[in-house]
Amino acid sequence: MPESVGIATGFLIAALHHAGLVALTHTPNPMRFLNGLLGRPESEKPMMILAVGHPAADATVPAAAKLKKPLAEILTVS
C-alpha cells in the first residue's frame, strides 16, 4: 500500500507542477497525531502531509538540489 500512495502522490505532484503550483511532502514520525487533529477514525493511517501553493516571485532552487549524478552512474541497461 505505501507504494501505491507514493506513486499516486508522484502523479499528483506532477499535475500540481503542471498547473503552476509547488508542493512539499512531509512525513513526520509518528503520523497518528493527524487522526485526532482532523477527527479521523483510528482505522485510517495517514501517510504524508502535502503542502501546496504558489511559489514566491523570487523563489529559487537551492544549489544542492541541482547536483545530479551522471546518467551512466545510476542507469544499468541489460
UniProtKB/TrEMBL annotation:
Domain of life: Bacteria
SUPFAM superfamilies named in the record: FMN-dependent nitroreductase-like
Keywords: Flavoprotein, FMN, Oxidoreductase
PANTHER family, per database record: IODOTYROSINE DEIODINASE 1, NADPH NITROREDUCTASE
Protein's name in the database: Nitroreductase family protein
